Amino acid sequence: MATIRNRGEYQWEAQIRRKGYPAQRKTFETKADAQAWARMIESEIDRGIFVSRVEAERTAFYELIDRYISEVAPKHKGAYSEIKRLEALKRHPLATRIVATLTSSDFARYRDERLKIRKGNTVKRELALFQCVLEVARREWGIHLAENPVRMVSRPSYNDERSRRLAPDEEDYLLAALEYFERRADGTYAEGSHNPWIRPIVQLALETAMRRGELFQLLWKHVSLDRRTAHLPSTKNGLPRTLPLTPKAAQLLRELPRSLCGRVFPTTADALKKAFTRGLARARARYLEDCEEAQVTPQEGFLLDLRFHDLRHEATCRLATKLPNLIELASVTGHREVNMLKRYYNITAEELAAKLA
């Protein structure tokens, strides 16, 4: 039998003790609420379906996020970006809520708020992270929730497929802007990249269609310049693959210095992101100067809205002209499903016209 005690104004404590079960105690503002809760818990115990809600009722959402960051996220391939995103989500007021009080309407409001300032695909990823944190907590950490509240929230529909191609003039200006210049005696740099690895990363990406993560994981011990191959033991889809190197890619690798750590590109993804963005700005500025000097109208969109991942799209399109067989193309790019290549197999009308000639 439950014990209901008045512990002061608007404080009614319900306590339940049953042999074989942990003691349950909760405080309510009214006696009726305390009695209703006690009846519910006793009914669940009698039917053998009781699960303790203590942890869910005293744990804040940000505590689960912290634990996920320390225990789960480091095991994932995209750990760096996932942790950065979770750290940002932890600063949202929703993270201060007690886990047991979270509902699907809370996350629906979060979705609607974020859609006002972020794209749909970004919001989908954030909701997916929230769902993963709560799912791990439910299944492995003893946080009892009748259901995952994020699972019931509809995701925003958003088409993020891109078909951005890199024009030859854009490539020339970009590579020129990424040229490495050593530090001068006075401590300054010439107008160019301060990181010697950025330009060869971009060049190799355009030759091989390798993903950014695959480029950073590439080791010299897995590169055979004699056979013109590079082995990737760990890829985005979890399947290893050995990709062929074009003559230009093999020559590029021959000219690179060897690092003691064994990595082909001993730099970081964050350094690449910053250097690539700055290189784009320098390349466009130089292009506009040349147009003004030549008194010609600049091309609209020249080097605008270009992302590093667009280089994979461009490289795949170039490889498609040499490997019209989609099975062969998939073995190079690493796509598990051939149908996915339709997104990247984006030959222009001019290229098709040349084939028909």
UniProtKB/TrEMBL annotation:
Database matches in Gene3D superfamilies: Intergrase catalytic core (1.10.443.10)
Entry's Gene Ontology molecular function annotations: DNA binding
Stretches of the chain forming a coiled coil according to its record: none
This protein's record includes keyword Signal: no
SUPFAM superfamilies: DNA breaking-rejoining enzymes
Sorted UniProt keywords: DNA integration, DNA recombination
Mitochondrion in keyword set: no
Domain Tyr recombinase intervals: 161-357
Alphabetical GO biological process terms: DNA integration; DNA recombination
Record's protein name: Site-specific integrase
Source organism of the structure: Pseudomonas cavernae
Organism lineage string: Bacteria, Pseudomonadati, Pseudomonadota, Gammaproteobacteria, Pseudomonadales
